Amino acid sequence: MKLKIAAHQINFQSNKKQNLDKMLSILEKTKAQLHVFPEYSMGTPPNGLTQTFVKENAEQINGPFISKILEKSKEQQTAVTFTVFLTEKNQIFNTALLVENGKIKATYKKIHLFDALGHKESNLFSPGTKIATAKIQNFTVGLAICFDLRFPELFRALAYKGAELFVVPSAWYMGKHKKEQWQILTKTRAHENNTYLIGVNQTLPQFIGNSIITSPFATTIKQANTQETTLTAELNKKTLLDSKNQIPTIKLSKPKLYKTL
Question: What is the pTM assigned to this prediction?
């Protein structure tokens, strides 16, 4: 009833192949049942994403970037969460994939695009419309991406679907109060839904780092600083059950009533 996870806080450069090679090397060197990489795995230019960069690097679901990680997950017999610029029907989605042993288990297209603090992610991507969960080693995993953390409704919907672990690949930009907001939101989303949460960031100079693994009780299991690193932890189902028994927020919530208010 345990899950060994590895959260890889790394920076991605503008060269997609170099980013892929870096990820494949990490997967070879680190043993875990679930690996999580930050947002924008295909690349992050020094001055941020542009329409041209996203279009040039976007791939279909059977593209080489995704296929190589699928192959590595099968070779290593492990699960991996990473994000891609996914092209479908003349649209591009900022998409988190959860793959295991060479198969895609869940696909989540980012619902809440980062149109805030001077950024306009909706100029780059189309928004998704569906939540995504999958079973990994007896844990039900719910996917979200970065800015989604500011929308508790999404995480509550995942909890209603049985999510026990939120996996949140992120590229949380530097800025005033951003570290404090990151820490509060990650812990709150976990605690209010009786779940674990893994939030994995890119780091300096554009992003804050501070990747975190938090418990259902809002305690910090592991947290990084601003350097590239890998956080490892073993998540235990007993902690989930203790949380649900002591503070049964999902059991006591009243979603039908909320819709009428």
Answer: 0.97
One of 1.10.10.10, 3.60.110.10, 3.40.50.2300, 3.30.565.10 is the CATH number of 2-258, namely 3.60.110.10
Q: Residue 70: helix, strand or coil by DSSP?
A: helix
pLDDT recorded at residue 125: 98
pLDDT single digits (tens) 118-156: 899 999 999 999 999 999 999 999 999 999 999 999 999
Low-confidence ranges of the chain (pLDDT < 70): none
Residue 259 confidence (pLDDT): 85
Query: What confidence score (pLDDT) does residue 243 get?
Result: 97
